[in-house]
Amino acid sequence: MYDIAIIGAGVTGAAIARELSKYDFRIIVLDRENDISCGTSKANSAIIHAGYDAEENTLMAKLNVEGNAMFDRLCEELDVPFRRNGSLVVAFDDEQLVHIKKLMQRGINNGVPALSILSQEELLKREPALNPEAKGALLAESAGIIDPMLLTISMMESAVKNGVHYRLNFDIESIKNKGGVYILESGGDEIEAKYVINAAGVFADKVHNMAAKPSFKIKPRRGQYFLLDKIDGNIVNSVVFPCPTKMGKGTLVTPTVHTNLLIGPSSDDLDDPEDLSTTDELLEKARIGAKLLVPKLTTRNSIRTFAGMRAEPDAGDFIIREAEGAPGFFDAAGIKSPGLTAAPAVALYMVEIMKKSGIAFTAKKNFNPLVKRKLFIDMSESAQSALIRGNPLYGRIICRCENITEGDIVDSIRRSPGATTVDGVKRRCRAGMGRCQGGFCGPRVQEIISRELNKPLEEVVLEKKHSYILTGKTK
Amino acid sequence: MDYDAVVIGGGPAGLGAAIEAKKNGLSRVLIIERDVEPGGILQQCIHNGFGLHIFKEELTGPEYAQRYIDMAKEDNIDIMLDTIVTSISKDRKIKAMNSSGIVSISAGAIVLAMGCRERTRGAIAIPGDRPAGIFTAGTAQRYINIEGYMVGKKVIILGSGDIGMIMARRIVLEGGEVIAVIARSSFAKGLTRNVVQCLDHYNIPLLLNHNIIEIKGKERVESVVIAETDAKKEVIKGTEKEYECDTVLLSVGLIPENELSRLAGIEIDRKTGGPVVNESMETSVPGIFACGNVVHVHDLVDFVTEESMRAGANAARFVKGEIKTESEYMYTSVSGGLTYCVPHRLRYSAMLEKLDLFLRVDKVYPDSWIVIRDSEKELARFRHKNLTPGEMIKQTVKKSVFENAAGNIEIKLETEGLV
Questions:
Q1: CB contacts < 8 Å between A and B, how many?
Q2: What is the value of ipTM here, to two decimals?
């Protein structure tokens, strides 16, 4: 039996797992997918928000600002690429100029540092490619960009290093409470835990309702994106937003931490939380929105389009509390944007709530906060040469677009939680993330996984459990 | 390490260039190849039809490659395999790495022969789900011909490029079903002989003026929605049809691989996606030459070889100081249905007796003239029948045509007065 079961290995579940691994608990993280970081955490804007968007006195505002401040240390401990490149909310008319001042005031009230209003001249000096009709912008210097998948994976790896267990392909069908112990059931398999933390993202209401009476609804809200080639990666320097609307923060244009350019998201409400299809109409909307900010932008160098799902809570704010009528069952639900930013603060807040609920916390003496993960390409030449001498696999580049070596790929498979799928390798070391999208390296990554995990090539899948790539041998 | 000439890429372009550089008097020539064997993409092209122009016989891809690999061996050309070039500089310093470590090489001349890569789904933004079972045609070809694995049972192919059509036939030969080859254009993009030999002979439908408008399937491809398109390539409402299938192959264009060229600050032509080159196949950086699909995408390997031999010979002339550079550049431009011309600029003094201009057209022209003019007068004209976008035009022109040319060179397609 476990002390704590965390449902969902996305950024929220991973952050909570890592935070709780500092204490003396037996913990398991469960996820319905074939790998960790497979839901909203793998398809979002990859922004660490400053914290001026959320209304004052909300949980969202508090945890956004607190979370933002934690990222320098967190990313250093976990070797996750992160850069505070600042964000801009651009105003195109007088009404919007008034609005960005309001946003600035809200930011100040929320405790956001380093906010200022840029004049048209200052704005265009900072971002020369911006639409010259822009009148000014709100600059938030504390905003930044990150690799959200690596963040999630590194937090999980840190948790696992500190004793947390995990189980994949565990899609919970029922939750029972027997004498104060929760029994989580999936396909006839059961896991018992004294406490349950629900970090199930777009499925959080469904999971909540298995253990407690319904008290909130999660509305899936889809966002579609273009990812552009690195050729276009420096069109803008900052995260550039238009003025926000009711549907969200609007279509943004931002460099990614891996120097690509990201355009999106669109926004539409769906019933099916798993419908991650892209549509011509909404991609076109995102493209037009982006062009409004940066007129010379085209999607000619698009290397991928994708969609992610926001877990929109019906009450508007994050839901982080012990479920009513279900003692020991804690929700971390409705974690929509700025959920990525808030994640480490959500984890701290969860600890507080659990303590308040009477759970005894004993700190471990030997918690190790560090995860080292550096790719060959990001090292100095002398370090690279030394690495090849020690392991010749580092001298073989497999992914030619991102310059990822066989050594990097093998490492991403041997870590824990390690990659077992082609996309799992991509998330961990970027092989296949580049302009040819795995055209060259896909088959070779598949071979390496097959060799390392000692399973037939046909059994290596792209992503989900049944996403087979090959259908058998040739004649 | 020092070499007279270093060729980056050991496919047909690289092999041709290296052999010719050696023949023209360079003693130390090196090919750097990223795969474990030379020959490039030809090694997976096991169908025949290669070498008709050069050898007057039909060879398979590996056979064609082997002839040049043998020649390179006889000529004692060094080949570094399983080695990737990570950077080149304007002063012709090369950095490369393999499992023995990182090496720096100085070259008298560099020839770029990195070839091209396939456009992907992301590049054309096909909407829908993102399941397994979507491959570029070349990736599928590698799986089937090199690794020995099938990629699917019921296949739809988007794009009527040569690889797409060749793969349609290949899948049928392996016992798979090809529902159709879908072309977004009103004509097949590949060679006519491939339409006949790969599709017609196997009763595979070619749906012109169609597009895939949605891919469905949460884990593996389950179906695709296809629709007719109008002259503007917009979908005609009401023509949507859903087809069950487990695989989508994409043959939607090739992109010259010029990441290294960009690192060296070489000027790239937006139209071809390859370096701007002169009559000697030299890029905007002196002493760095380029040839084959890295410059512009060819449809026949024979033309790649010819172009590469010229680049190799000129790299040797450069190292020996034999390229006469006194004439000023004349820039070539195209009009009237021609989409590009390689080379992009010409120096009369540096030309050899004959010059090959490579051109493409935007649509089918049953009968036309290719007219070459300078800023004042017509210099030459050539009659051409049945020009199609799928077949590159090689127009050989005598050097003497340009003898008294004034200003820049315009190459125009004329159909006036012709049927």
A1: 131
A2: 0.94
For residue B47, pLDDT over 70 is answered with yes
Instruction: Give the pLDDT confidence of A265-307 residue by residue, as tens digits.
Output: 999 999 999 999 999 999 999 999 999 999 999 999 999 999 9
Search chain B and give the residue with CA nearest A442: B139
Please give the average per-residue pLDDT across B271-298, as a whole number.
97
Name the CATH topology of B120-252. FAD/NAD(P)-binding domain (3.50.50)
- Tell which of A389, A471, A473, A475 to mutate to test the B interface (max B CBs under 10 Å): A471
Amino acid, single-letter form, for residue B384: H
The answer as to whether A475 is a domain residue is: no
Chain B residues closer than 8 Å to A283 by CB: 125, 127
Residues 32-51 of B with CB under 8 A from A: 34
Do A81 and A150 touch, CB atoms closer than 8 A?
A: yes
Cβ contact (<8 Å) for A461 and B102? no
In Å, how far is B6's CA from the nearest CA of chain A?
Answer: 20
What whole-number distance in Å separates Cα of residue A231 and Cα of residue A259? 9
Tell me whether domains B1-118+254-323 and B326-419 share a fold.
Answer: no
Q: Which domain holds residue A136?
A: 84-145+219-310
Amino acid B208: pLDDT: 96
Distance (Å) from the C-alpha of residue B415 to the closest C-alpha of chain A? 32
- Topology, domain B326-419: Immunoglobulin-like (2.60.40)
Domain layout of chain B by residue ranges: 1-118+254-323, 120-252, 326-419
Residue B191 dihedral angles phi and psi, to the nearest 5°? -65, 145
CA distance B308 to chain A (A): 23
Q: Give the separation between CA B373 and CA B356, rounded to whole angstroms.
A: 16
B72-100 pLDDT, tens digit per residue, is 999 999 999 999 999 999 999 999 999 99
**Is the CB of A469 less than 8 angstroms away from the CB of B132?**
yes
A49 is catalytic: yes
Nearest CA in chain A to B86: A403
Contact A466 B102 (CB under 8 A): no
Q: What residues of B are in contact with residue A398 (Cβ under 8 Å)? A: none
Q: Which residue is closest to A391 within chain B, CA to CA?
A: B99
Q: Which residues fall within 8 angstroms of residue A233, CB to CB, at 6 or more apart?
A: A255, A256, A259, A260, A261
> How does B276-309 read in b/e, with b if 16+ C-beta sit within 10 Å?
bbbbbbbbbbebbbbbbbbbbbbbbbbbbbbbbb
Claim to verify: residue A236 and residue A330 sit in the same structural domain: no
Q: Name the residue facing B98 among A395, A401, A467 (closest C-beta).
A: A395
Residues of chain A with pLDDT under 50: none
- Cα–Cα distance, A419 to A67 (Å, whole number): 28
Mutate to test the interface with B, among A259, A274, A397 (most CBs of B within 10 A): A397
Token pair for A226: 């273009």
State the pTM of this model. 0.95
In a domain, A224, yes or no: yes
| Beta-carbon contacts of residue A152 (< 8 Å; ≥ 6 apart) | A9, A10, A11, A14, A36, A37, A41, A42
Please tell me the distance in Å from A445's CA to the nearest CA on chain B: 13
**What is the CATH code of the structural domain delimited by B1-118+254-323?**
3.50.50.60
